[in-house]
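Might you be able to check the backbone structure tokens below? Thank you kindly.
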Amino acid sequence: MGGIENIHMKRGSRVLYLGAASGTTVSHVSDIVGPEGIVYAVEFSNRSGRDLLSVAQKRTNIVPVIEDARVPQRYRMIVGMVDVIFSDVAQPDQARILALNAHQYLKDGGHYIISIKASCVDSTATPEAVVASEIENLRSEKLKPLESVTLEPYERDHTVIVGVYRSSPKEDNMETN
């Protein structure tokens, strides 16, 4: 069975989690980064946000941000530079949402994880075509994919992509040699 080699999160990591929902997966990320790390958890829905606030009360390394991930400038006073962005928003423009946040908060050479829900992006295209298009969208925003894995049979038409932001010129030269 295949999987992702490296999610680039470890103790002490600073993570921006987009699409935090009620905080279930955020709590797992909180465990990974430990008390030395921090998870900025962005959720737009007030209802899910209430649950997220409850989770954050018990976990001091979670900073809940009840805001629209499409407008990252709105939380610039709360969120600092991060090592990793985990994007789990089920929106047609999810690659653009990730890019907006990466340009604002992801350190150069930082990593991202995006869960692409093909039917949320384009229900008329094949999942493979949607993923290929989203990969091109990511590349055009200096978000270089490194690994991907489908979540079949657990989740239908879902692909997780892990990549790096603005990789250093040294890394780029290694690819062309």
Observations:
- The radius of gyration is 16 Å.
- The mean pLDDT is 91.
- Helices lie at 24-33, 46-58, 94-105, 118-121, 127-140, 169-176.
- The CA atoms of residues 11 and 166 lie 23 Å apart.
